[in-house]
């Protein structure tokens, strides 16, 4: 039976780290000599290189987001060409597109154990023996909200639009923004109002805001404009606690 792989590129240390951390995942990175390849169970049902390449682009987004959540470095992986492995082991390359890679290396200080919202250790509630990265990858295969969050979180640099997408998906999954405050994932409703206000209006958040604001627009509420760095910290904290609750 023929098989598909996708050559991926990036810093060798980064790729080796993900290879080690995702050995049991259905979507993972494998090493073959001095090269790294993306493999996925989804590829098994595909017969066309263009389809494999298109799906690989989506999977690379997920893996980049998982790496960003795990160790804080976005855009670890770039997609190169598709490889078809025939029954007799021969390989054929299909050049269908390229994804750029942000340079950099992990500052790997993570222990591989996700801590809880109060810093406690042993946060894994999922299957024993699975890494954080493997669990998130498996959950993403079955959960539309997780896929939506990972796709938005993979964007680099973050924009008001991408940060809002993460917030919106988590808020919908939790059935409302008040739950985020009740669980202690955000400090207050006021903090959320500051975030959504800034993210939604270009007069406050700038050109990456979700909507163009008419000149002279003033919001009746006393929302405080939030900086993009404050917003990034808010969403980083929110996504960490949400994933902790899922695992």
Written description of the protein model:
With 247 residues, the protein is of the alpha+beta class. It folds into 2 domains: 92 residues, no CATH class; 90 residues, no CATH class. The chain is built from 9 helices and 5 strands. Helices cover 43% and strands 13% of the residues. About 11% of the residues have low confidence. Strands 2-3-1-4-5 form a 5-stranded antiparallel β-sheet, covered by helices on one side.
CA-based gyration radius: 20 Å
**Average predicted confidence as pLDDT:** 81
Name the structural class: alpha+beta
- Overall outline: elongated
Number of helices: 9
Percent in strands: 5-15%
Order of helices and strands: EHEEHEEHHHHHHH
User: Within the largest sheet, what's the order of strands?
Assistant: 2-3-1-4-5
Give unreliable regions as ranges: 100-126
**How many β-strand stretches?**
5
Largest sheet: 5 strands, antiparallel
The separation of the N and C termini measures 35 Å
Estimate percent helicity.
40-55%
Number of domains: 2
What's the helix and strand layout?
Layout: E1 3-9, H1 12-21, E2 27-32, E3 35-40, H2 49-71, E4 78-85, E5 91-94, H3 132-140, H4 144-153, H5 160-173, H6 178-182, H7 189-200, H8 202-205, H9 228-246
Antiparallel strand pairs: 1-3, 1-4, 2-3, 4-5
Helix pairs in contact: 2-3, 2-4, 4-5, 5-7, 5-9
Provide keyphrases for this structure:
247 residues; alpha+beta; five-stranded antiparallel sheet; elongated
Could you give a quick summary of the protein structure above?
Helix content is 43%, strand content 13%.
């Amino acid at each position: 039976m023929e098989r598909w792989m996708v050559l991926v590129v990036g810093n060798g240390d980064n790729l080796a780290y993900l290879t080690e951390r995702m050995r049991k995942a259905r979507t993972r990175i494998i090493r073959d000599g001095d090269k790294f390849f993306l493999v996925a169970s989804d590829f098994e049902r595909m017969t066309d290189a263009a389809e494999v390449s298109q799906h690989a682009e989506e999977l690379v987004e997920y893996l980049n987001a998982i790496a960003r959540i795990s160790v804080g470095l976005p855009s670890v992986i770039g997609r190169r060409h598709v490889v078809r492995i025939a029954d007799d082991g021969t390989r054929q390359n299909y050049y269908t597109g390229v994804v750029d890679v942000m340079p950099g290396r992990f500052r790997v200080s993570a222990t591989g154990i996700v801590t809880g919202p109060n810093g406690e250790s042993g946060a894994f509630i999922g299957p024993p023996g699975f890494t954080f990265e493997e669990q998130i990858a498996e959950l993403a295969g079955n959960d539309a909200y997780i896929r939506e969050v990972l796709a938005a979180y993979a964007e680099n640099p973050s924009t008001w639009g991408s940060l809002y997408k993460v917030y919106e998906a988590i808020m919908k999954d939790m059935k409302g923004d008040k739950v985020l405050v009740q669980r202690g994932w955000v400090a207050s409703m006021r903090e959320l109002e500051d975030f959504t206000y800034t993210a939604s209006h270009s007069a406050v958040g700038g050109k990456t805001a979700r909507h163009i604001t008419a000149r002279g627009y003033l919001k009746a509420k006393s929302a405080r404009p939030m900086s993009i760095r404050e917003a990034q910290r808010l969403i980083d904290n929110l996504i960490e606690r949400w994933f902790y609750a899922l695992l």
